[in-house]
């Protein structure tokens, strides 16, 4: 199993079936993993553009959006799609950067405050459950240590 920095936070909150959106190399067992990037070592279960997803309404109990929302051109469409594919009382677990360097260029568009994430999700009908900040130490290519700050939260349909 691949360990993601938010995995410990989310693993006890997941109710299956679960969709992990924008998983990249963070493929989790026993759930659907969606990304537009083909991973040559492990084929993804779903490869499509989530902004035009054909996933049926009310298909999942949990949707994971872990450190992905900053890389999408229109985060509103992503949150709206998450709401659409979640079953009643389903949960969205989201994490997003607040203070980080630009990464994975040129597809790094947004930074989110705690209040910004809450407003974004509430705007599409989600109910706020919880949110917290966390930090991650990273080392640059030249060996400098930096602390990146993120928020992660849970929202219910």
Give a brief rundown of this model.
With 157 residues, this protein is of the alpha/beta class. The protein contains three helices and six strands.
Percentage beta strand:
25-35%
Mean pLDDT: 81
Shape by Cα distribution? globular
Residue share in helix: 10-25%
What's the structural domain tally?
1
Which quaternary structure do these chains form? Answer: single chain
CA(first)-CA(last) distance: 28 Å
Q: What's the CATH topology label?
A: Rossmann fold
Taking all Cα atoms into account, the compactness measure Rg is 15 Å
Low-confidence stretches: 38-46
Largest sheet: 6 strands, mixed
CATH superfamily: Vaccinia Virus protein VP39
Q: Which class of secondary structure composition applies to the elements?
A: alpha/beta
Query: Count of helices?
Result: 3
As laid out across the biggest beta sheet, the strand order is 2-1-3-4-6-5
Examine the secondary-structure arrangement and name the CATH architecture. 3-Layer(aba) Sandwich
Number of E strands: 6
Task: Spell out the helices and strands N to C.
Answer: HEEEHEHEE
CATH class wording:
Alpha Beta
Tell me what you see in this structure.
By secondary structure, the chain is an alpha/beta fold. It has a single domain (7-156), classed as Rossmann fold, CATH 3.40.50. The chain is built from three helices and six strands, in the order H-E-E-E-H-E-H-E-E. Residues 38-46 have low confidence and may be disordered. The chain starts with 6 loop residues before the first helix and ends with a strand. It is globular.
